[in-house]
TrEMBL record:
Gene3D superfamilies: Glycogen Phosphorylase B. Keywords: Transferase. It comes from the Archaea. Residues 230-338 form the Glycosyl transferase family domain. It holds the Pfam family Glycos_transf_1. GO terms for molecular function: glycosyltransferase activity. This is Glycosyl transferase, group 1. SUPFAM superfamilies: UDP-Glycosyltransferase/glycogen phosphorylase.
Amino acid sequence: MRILAIGNVFNPSGGSKHVINVLKELGKMGDDVTLYVPATFVRPGDEVLKDLERYVNVHPTVYDVTERRREGRISYFLRSHTVYLNWNDLEEDAESVRKLEDVRADVVYDMHEDSITLRLSYHVARRIGKPLVKLLHEEPFRNSFGRGYRRIMGVPGLAYDTLMWVFYKLDRRAFELAMRDHTLRGIAAVSQSSITLSGIDRMTERYGVRLHVYKVGNAFDVPSNLRRVRGKENYAVFFARLVPQKGTRELPKVADHFDGRILVFGKLFSERERRALSHPKIDYLGYRPLHELYDAVSRAKVLIYPSHQDGFSLVVLESLALGTSVVAYDIPAIRYVYSGIKPVKTVREHDVLGMARAANEVMNMKEEEYESEHNDERVKEFLRVHSSWGNVAQETHDFLSTFAKA
């Protein structure tokens, strides 16, 4: 099968990790994959591209963009949610889209939920006359008023939610436009969460678009020898993108009631978040190499994870793979993927006191009970099927092939 993939491989996020690993595995399976990275996502340096080229074809225009310096870029946030208003303006990708017409493909696979990649992949699919399939990591829009940031950030959060309420209307129209003329033929999701929060299933049913939730939406790369379920140390960890939607504002409130220290790993994006993490019980250790991060997580007794926004949390998955219990909010992304997995404890969203209490209970667990939860048969089976990106790629291949054969 010949796949033209549209994806971001430059972002240090779970979404980019999914894109990179699935494309590699598809290439190993024998699929002929060509990758195009939209200009807005390209960053200086081509190491990740060179690594990918062992398995897939990276379209030459991507390298052209890595060598250009761009001035006066409009915020990606604003542009990404207003593409419906400029549907035919492909901006910096216009020339590349013309060159992509020469790519021989059976299907176009847009590996992000963004409207900005939908516009690009839509025009590519239309030009080459092939079906478009889109992947959702998180919800592309919500039925609710914003994303609940007013609960986290107060008045600024209310302003943000209001803006998102408007943007979601535009995002929804962009998806409807792509479905209406049957260019967008299929939507896959890494978990049920993005479908529940967006209600996109009603839209796909109306326009006859095939909808599929992957049974194995993500995988982990943690070496099995790092898994530790005995001899844990008395501290907690938190690692993620250090932004409010991942719980940085609540973490100090949890720490107030937590009986121990919390080690925090990740990249800070603002001085406000740095100040939020200034707490006697919080040690901010920065963005560390993977082997250091994994070692610290494997020794910790619990991951405290007050995230409000996820699709399929790799942070939780990697913690489980390392033998570390998790306390998280009961948001759909956690509920749909990890329900019934004993080491994953959940509390009501925004209940920081409940989160601290649950984390303290884990800290006080006897070693035998702790080990027993992690060695539960359901946990071991869950980790087994999620231990290979090949499983994710196989399901991806099977879904895409139904469109390539059509």
